[in-house]
Amino acid sequence: MVFLGIVPKVFLFAFPYTLLAFYLNSYCGVWTPRLPTIGALLVAVGIALWLFCYTQISRAYRRRELLTSGCYSRVRHPIYSIWGLLILPGFSLVIGGFMLGLLVVYWTVVMRIIGEEEKALEERFDDEWREHTKRTSRFLPRV
C-alpha cells in the first residue's frame, strides 16, 4: 500500500469541484453567509492536528508498523476526519457559496473508497488490523 492511501482518488474528485465552485461563486452571484473568522479558526486547528497525526503515521509507515496509539488509538482514519470535519469546512466557511458543497463531495468519495484502503491494511497487517478495527471506529471516537 502506498503512503498516500486514498488521497489521490479523493483529490481527483474534490479538486475539480473546488475549481467549479470558485467559478460558480464568481459568475453566479449567489449569496451565502460567510464566516471567515470561524472558518480560519477551524482551518488553523485542523492543520495543527493534521501535522500531529501526520508525524505519527509517517514514523510508523517508515517502520512498517500499524499505528494503534496516539491519534490512531480511538479512530482508524483521523487524518480523513480532520480534513472532513475541520479543514475543509473551515475553508468552505471562509469562501462560502458553492464551496460549501465540497464537504458533500469529500465525504461521498471517502465513504465510497475507504474500503480499498482498509482492505490493503488488512492484507498487510492481518490480525493486528482486525483487532484494531474492533477497538476503533472509522472517523469519530466511540462514545
From TrEMBL:
Query: What are the alphabetically sorted keywords of the record?
Result: Membrane, Transmembrane, Transmembrane helix
Q: Which InterPro entries does the record match to this protein?
A: Metal_cation-efflux_comp
This protein's source sits in the domain of life called Archaea
Q: Which Gene3D superfamilies match?
A: 1.20.120.1630
Residues crossing the lipid bilayer are 6-25, 37-57, 82-109
Q: Which PANTHER family match?
A: BLL3993 PROTEIN
In its UniProt entry, what is this protein called? Isoprenylcysteine carboxylmethyltransferase family protein
Q: Which organism is it from?
A: Thermococcus aggregans
Q: What is the lineage of its organism?
A: Archaea, Methanobacteriati, Methanobacteriota, Thermococci, Thermococcales
